[in-house]
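Hey, can you fold this one?
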Amino acid sequence: MKKSRSILRALLPPLMSLLLFAGLFELGVLLVAGEQAKFPRHVVGTDFGVRVNQPDTTYRHKSADGTWWFTINSRGLRADREYPYEKPPGVFRIVSLGDSFTAGYEVAGDETFSSVLEQELRRAGLQVEVLNAGVSGYSNAEALLYLERELLKYDPDLVLLSFFANDLVDNVRSGLFRLEEGRLVQTADGYVPAGAIGNFLNTNPLFNWLSGYSNAFVFAKERLTHILKRRIVEQNRQNVADAVDGAEAAGATAPPEQDEADGDAGDSGSPEQALAVAILDRLYEQTHARGIPLVIQSIPIPIGEDEGELVETFPVDYFDLDREGLYFVGMAGPLTPWVGREPLYNRRSHGHWTAFAHRVSGETLARLVLREHLLDRSMTAAAVAGHALPSRSAAQQPQGEIR
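Sure. Predicted structure:
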């Protein structure tokens, strides 16, 4: 007993000092840097190689822009219900792939564009399930493997992939693919940042509590994460460094309809663009071979503090959009009419779409699905038989009117 008290007396001063330092650090970060975006990741590895949202979790995201709760089902989808692999009779399914924009960072679950898309299609009389498979930090490379190894089990009638500018670098960071003589080659079977350590940190209750409630912890963690990401990108830069020589050797060119004023028709773009195009080509091949329409949504970047201009970063000059069963929605068009009228991006945290922007996106996507009858099984079958479905380019997209 005396020994225990002696140990306690010895530990008490350093513990008090540690608590005092932590309190001062917390206060200092709040006063100097302001409230941090407390977004615990809850992203874990799987037995099929790529990350998903931690199954069976409920957690909070909080920033200066608001507070939102996440519910993840037993298979890692953002949903408050379960989806069996076997599709219910008479129900259409859409699989929605992407990163934190798709997952719905900084909005409620029923405010994501995937949920809005489902709501609008149901309002039009269709029995539809839209599965939100967005995962924070995802690349196109991970989305491709997630679709091939897991999501096709849900028997989707349509696949929606949302593209954002950081996908170009994230494809490199994953190290899953590289280009060799213009061909896409898989170089790793799976990718989990920091491996077992990353899984531990993302699932540890203490670290997750600190990520959700401590400004000081988030301040330090975000800066360390940024440093580690940059190192990983540099380590994998060779994955795409050969893309230029490889693409040129293979004679890769921009689509023939590209205007000469837009650049050299023989230019395959940057190595990052060339890799992204090759990954998206394979994703299209997977969906087209199964008669599944593929919709690619491009999420624009806001330029200027007042979001004065929205810029598309999807490599439209190098990815052939004129293919049957392929549809492209550049969201700069639908969103631009609302610039200055409605907040589109959460500017005091991580810059994701607001609920309003998600609604514009979901309604735009619903109009496309309805207008082109993308959930019509007979039309999909006709496409497989060789009857081309109309495709859409950015210039043909509907404007941002909400009805």
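The CA atoms of residues 35 and 215 lie 6 Å apart. Let me know if you want another pass with a different chain boundary.
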